[in-house]
Amino acid sequence: MATKNVVVVGAGFAGITATRKLAKQLKGTDYQIVLIDKHSFMTYMTELHEVATGRVQPEHVRKDLGTLFHNDKNVKLVTAEVSDIDKDQKIVKTSIGDVPYEKLVLATGGTTNTFGTPGVEEFGFTLWSYEEALRLREHIEDVIRRGAVELDPAKRAAMLHIVVVGSGFTGAELAGELMDQRHSLALSNGLDEDEIKIDIIEAAPTILNMLTKRDLADKAEKHFEAHNVHIYKSTSVVEVKGNAAVLKDGTEVPTQTLIWTAGVKAKDQGAQWGLDLGPGARFMADEYSRAVGYEDIYVSGDAAAYQDPKLADPNNKRAGWTPQTVEGAESASNTIVPNIVYDLTQKGQRKEFKGRYQGYAVSIGSRYAVGILDQIGNFKIGKSGIGLSGFFANMFKHVINIYFYLQIHSFYYLGHYLRDEFFNAPDGREPFFGWASRHANVLFTLPLRIVLGITWITFGSASVFAGSWIGVVMALIGWFMTFGLFTSVAGFVGIVMTFVLMAITRSDITLFLFAPASLAVMNGSGRVLGLDYWVMPWLERKLNITLHGKQKSVYNDYNKK
User: Fold this and answer.
1) How do residues 352-380 score in pLDDT, each as one tens digit?
2) d(CA 96, CA 555)
């Protein structure tokens, strides 16, 4: 039987979630899922501010599509631009050819809405793509470096002044990361931290206006003020110049780094596809998450607009619309997937859209956040949830990210997330003030590793253990440690054997010292004058390719057999 296509356009949170669930639900049928995106990777949008400010490396937000769907044989990846949609012939027109569809999911995402403000595109920066995050990262490091040695007071003031326009999720989180980054920027350029100015400009009279619990916004504002971040409220930027932001009252704020985060809209190409549009040029959706007027086209994520009639308020035109958040995208996928499966296989039943929101958190730097926990599973917590702030809200933000990786079954990228956020964070920029960071000189554990290895060999050769399985294991631990081969594994086995020996021999408590010593050498000490220097990178590469596939810059699986 000929294979038929369910096409998903867009590999953001919405597209990835829908593709993963469709792959599972349509497995064993004659339908395949064709995922089309102009990139060969998913961009983890909610972490872009961390890339822009140097907290994590750029690859932290790049999730290779081949790796994500390596085990989903019914998913075909296509790296291409979508130019048009022939709704009558049911064909997606792309830069590499036509792709017919039985069902189509549009998850094309959003982009920055500058509201036509003059100068933003020419002189400002935005933060809605991987490329924009890299551009901003390079600019911040460069402009502060040049500003530190600039002798002209006016030019110096503009170079060392960073302005964030908008205090929503993106603006607040970016300003918080800049607040943390300021320490390392000042240290590396011979500046006092106070010389690097950070401002937030908000048109509304309050900040973080998406927070239903306003006391949380007040806490966030006090946290900003305590860290010398100035907030302009009831103030709008009407023009951006090369060296200044012009406010509505005519005041000019000197800056060469203005970052616009004040609005979001659907991407422009959507308006060319002949679908009904709603607020922010988003595709209007019906109660089944279909594009209004089309039974075979579904819309999801930031590109979709649906107003829940139960929540609509004639006195508030913003009320009832699905939020442009990760959970909004996941809720749409939970509607779209069963509806497509029902359309194609008649299994299950058709579902109406129902927003399911566990809560959200806004990080203000690496160690502080504010957020709301709305529900746990299907259990609603109170009428408006529980407000969180500080460390617990910060942990909640990490839990939200971890939950996403679990949802898409990507334990590979979950491991990378934990590594980057907790163990590889620079300059103490993680929740535990750097205590969890792995950045240490493992050269200092080299003598311990060799002495410990020789000691394990000696103990294993002792007459009381000679020839026994215990002696053999002890000797193997020793040889592996001495030569620095599979040192972490040898260290772990050494810890286990320490407790085995203590139980068998009931010897002096000093034997217990073998456990912390073995733990210490697990921190990569085998890569210093050891075989792990060559073996572990080679093994990691081979295992990654075997388990997750080889990453590519361009995919074209559609015609691949």
Assistant:
1) 988 777 888 999 999 999 999 988 777 77
2) 11
- Candidates 363, 295, 300; CA nearest to 326 is 300
pLDDT of residue 402: 93
Q: Are strands 359-363 and 375-376 parallel, antiparallel or unpaired?
A: unpaired
Please give the helix or strand (H or E) that residue 250 lies within, else none: none
pLDDT in tens, 167-187: 999 999 999 999 999 999 999
375: three-class secondary structure by DSSP: strand
Coil, helix or strand for 409?
coil
336 to 29, 65, 72, 103, 285: CA distances (angstroms) = 18, 21, 19, 10, 11
Tokens representing residue 517 in the block: 């010593």
Comparing 39-53, 388-402, 405-419, 506-520, the range with the smallest average pLDDT is 506-520
Q: Is the dihedral of CA 347, 351, 333, 412 positive or negative?
A: negative
Strands 91-94 and 97-100 come out as antiparallel
Helices (H), 26-129: 48-52, 65-68, 120-123
Please check whether residue 75 is in contact with residue 65, taking contact to mean a CB–CB distance below 8 angstroms. no
Query: 8 and 26 in contact (C-beta within 8 Å)?
Result: no
Summary count for the chain: helices (H), strands (E): 16, 27
One-letter identity of residue 311: L
Residue type, 529: L
Supply 218's token pair. Answer: 């007040």
CB 259 within 8 A of CB 164: yes
269-273-276-281 Cα dihedral, nearest 10 degrees:
0
Cβ–Cβ under 8 Å, residues 305 and 352: no
Collect all residues with Cβ–Cβ distance below 8 Å to 419 and sequence separation of at least 6: none
Q: Between the CA of residue 183 and those of 144, 195, 221, 300, 427, what are the distances in Å?
A: 12, 11, 20, 40, 9
